[in-house]
Design a protein that fits this description.
Order of helices and strands: HEHEHEHEHEHHEHHE
Distance between the termini: 26 Å
CATH architecture: 3-Layer(aba) Sandwich
CATH class: Alpha Beta
CATH superfamily: Vaccinia Virus protein VP39
Oligomer: single chain
Radius of gyration: 17 Å
Length: 217
């Protein structure tokens, strides 16, 4: 039996967080790997939004439904609660202002599935104390690095903005990471929900990010 590559294994493991036989909108879907895994594991409908022409082409060639555009274009056309779940994987921390993204995801979807690199992992502290360099800093430039998200950081933000964390899924999914995800999960996926829909701005600010590139660990 052929070995599953790490990227496929990552997206496959997250299918357990999707509503059974539900509908999915995957933002920054790339070549559609998560969409294919979702459909293979029982999703009734799975659509994507992708800005990269090569990603859109890869999706279309495998028969997937994908919309070419950025997140602003991809979400404003959808009515409230039009999907069971809206996902954004390995990308949230790349936004300069991720808050509007979460608000739109929780408007369009009954739930939101988000994953991010866990900067609370024990190895991040070791690197900081042994090298004096903050983990995640770009070695070849001085510009701003991606946001250094941790599970306590996310919990505090959600608690103050009416967002509920329904489930926390550590990656890799081991005994240690399940017991103490904030220290032993390399990546963390969360399922979010919100009872009250956020108010839609009359003139929403554009969300800037080249969504053709997903963050990798």
């Amino acid at each position: 039996m052929s070995e599953i590559d790490p990227e496929t294994q990552f997206y496959r493991s997250l299918t357990v967080l999707l509503p059974p036989h539900g509908t999915l909108l995957d933002l920054a879907c790339g070549d559609g790997l998560f969409l294919r895994e979702a459909l293979a594991h029982g999703a009734k409908v799975a659509e994507g939004v992708e800005i990269s022409p090569s990603g859109v082409l890869a999706c279309v060639q495998t028969g997937l439904t994908v919309h070419h555009g950025d997140i602003t274009e991809g979400l404003t056309t959808y009515p409230d609660r039009s999907f069971d779940c809206v996902s954004l994987l390995r990308t949230l921390e790349l936004f300069e202002k991720p808050e509007p993204v979460l608000d739109e995801m929780l408007r369009v979807g009954h739930s939101a599935l988000v994953s991010f690199t866990n900067f609370g992992h024990w190895s991040q502290s070791v690197q900081r104390w042994t090298t004096g360099i903050l983990p995640g800093s770009a070695p070849d430039r001085l510009g701003g690095p991606a946001a250094r998200l941790t599970l306590p950081h996310l919990r505090r933000y959600c608690a103050g903005h009416g967002i509920q964390i329904d489930r926390v899924f550590p990656v890799p999914h081991t005994f240690l990471s399940s017991t103490w995800p904030r220290r032993f999960a390399v990546e963390i996926a969360v399922v979010l929900s919100r009872k009250e829909l956020p108010a839609r701005p009359i003139d929403p600010e554009p969300i800037q990010l080249p969504l053709g590139v997903k963050k990798t660990v």
